Amino acid sequence: MTDIPQMTLKKSKHRNQTIIIFEFDYNQKLIDLVKQLPNTCWSKTKQTWYQAADSFNLNKVFMHFKGYAYLNYTALQNNKTKTVEDTPRSRNYPHRQTVTLPKGYAEKLEQKRYSDSTQRTYKAYMKDFIFAFKHTDIKEFKHKEINTYILDLIRRHKISPSEQNQRISSIKFYYEKVLGRTKVNYEFERPRKTNHLPKVLAKHEIKQIINCTNNIKHRCILTRVRHKIYCSDRL
Q1: CATH homologous superfamily of 87-186
Q2: What are the mean pLDDT values of the chain's consecutive 10-residue runs (235 residues total)?
Q3: DSSP of 79-94
Q4: What's the pTM value of the predicted model, to 2 decimals?
């Protein structure tokens, strides 16, 4: 039995449009199959075959390559493949070079023995906060104004929950540690903790794993495990 080649599907950007790229080692049979898919093109710059995301259909692609290639599409499921344009970290913050931190902010971070990474993050986010209200005295702010500021970042810049928490913590540090105010007056809205559902393999994915196993002994073990799990679910 010959090994079934693997093909990886990923999301990317090409000529200002979202595309799905087909990554695989050179295989003439797979090349011929890719060419048969509608709206599939070859990119000279990326050196790969791709299809516009608007016309991409995972089920049709899966059936098209069934028996010819093992499809790895975890990048599409997890939606982790982001282009530079989509990443919040790609935003520019030139004001961070000119904005001055409040007196005692940097020193208090050192006294509290925060890590170098945390200090850099807090300083950067605090400068953003000061710059956003450069014509206002932030000492007089209440939690309502700060929550409005955080909400604006969520809506306009699509900041992640972790970045939201870090920005809130950097602001709280100023009011509570530097100015010495009580925590009661600055109860900011934090994001809900994300609960991820466990990853479960679909039936066709289990079949693919079994079919890709060349060793008869290993194939038998996987088949038995699959049968046992199926029976336990039926009870």
Answers
A1: Tyrosine recombinase, N-terminal domain (1.10.150.130)
A2: 78 89 91 92 89 89 88 72 42 84 95 92 94 86 83 87 90 92 61 62 74 80 72 52
A3: T----GGG-GGG---G
A4: 0.46
